[in-house]
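Entry 12.
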Amino acid sequence: MIMNRGSVLIVEDEQAHAEAMAEGLSRLGFECLIALTGSQGIDLINERPFDVVITDYKLGGDFDGVDVLKATRSQWPETEVILITAHGSEQLARTTLKKEHAYDYLTKPIDLEELREIVTRAARQAQAGREHLLLQRQLEEKADFKSIVVGSPEMRKILKIVRQVAPSNITVLLQGESGTGKDLIANAIHQYSPRHARRMVTLDCAGLSEGVLESELFGHVKGAFTGAVSGRKGRFEYADGSTLFLDEIGEMPLTMQAKLLRVLENREIVPVGSNEPVSVDVRLISATNRDLAEMVKDGKFREDLYFRIKGVTLRIPPLRDRREDIPLMIEYFLKIFVTEQNKKIEGLTPSARNILTNYHWPGNVRELRNCVETMVVLGEGPVLDVEDIPEEIRSQSTENPVTAIVPLTNLAGKSLQELEIEHIRNTLQLTRGNREQAANILGIAPRTLYRKLKEYNLT
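Predicted 3D structure (tokens):
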């Protein structure tokens, strides 16, 4: 089965010439339609999008190639247009190319290999541009909170809960692997709370000794310990009237857990070296990448503190379990880093996006962000491709990993049609019904997937 490389409209008043181009491109996997007049070509353009339009510069009838080009640009800005011109008219074609933003031009007689090469490149750029536009629209629709980009049902549920708990003072416990974006969720809760006018205060508990942690949380007075040449407020005092976010709370020593519990219950702290309590009004959000319930069983985390901080528990799934979010995140990070680096990068090719979508991302959102930043910094072309993906990620991926969904032992005895049906069904399960993403993974145009779903009566 030849992979569908995209759709092409050929507008050419010489029928034999048009059919020869269509045959040459069809053998490569392109879906081709022919229009013998400019008027017919414009009608087809108004009906549906194409990846590439190839049009003769001079056409018989009321509309010439420039009219076809303008109609395409007006109706489908992402479609790439290739002009065909007679020998000796190259300068005219170059002028039109620049003025009307055509993709390229070819001179008669057409060289088939050159035609195939240019159309392949143009189709890839058009598909990348169209996907870029689609993702931009999804991004605008689904980014409910600043810096949080979601498309998956799991994350939409989490944001729904965030909206519900944000106006209250209830404690929130965020659980999930490192790099999943727990800090972003904490910030969203704060920003949509009545305390948003004051800055959220953060402390990472990992790697801090008990003495340092106590001073960081509760502050100290002058002379409280060697080196305390002056008094210093702790995070609780700085967060008075605001939100305190304790990251990696599972790393807190047991003795400090007892002191934290006392503060949460009494709403007052005692700075190190002082006997005078200080009242504080703080909303607490905690985060951990550890299983606190198991730590309670093992005696490594206080049960009373556990129940005190888990007023509402949100488990943030790893990125590999919410792949619908990946294309949106890629688009979001791409926009950020293209602006930061002042680069002229329009998007990613479907192949590159496919690899990134199917990579397992052990470092979660943090790793994806670093990957996109690296690609933008080192990328040179207007469209980032597979070779722009960092080697350590590219080497662990295959362009179409879902082919492994069908076990090899099940292939024997099945027809090609049965295998295709099973492959499409499995890919739709992988993308949770996202047809555009499934078409990308399968390497076919979305409209081809729709046709096959109808043909095979798949829902």
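Annotation: The two ends are 22 Å apart (CA to CA). The domain at 6-140 is CATH 3.40.50.2300 (Rossmann fold).
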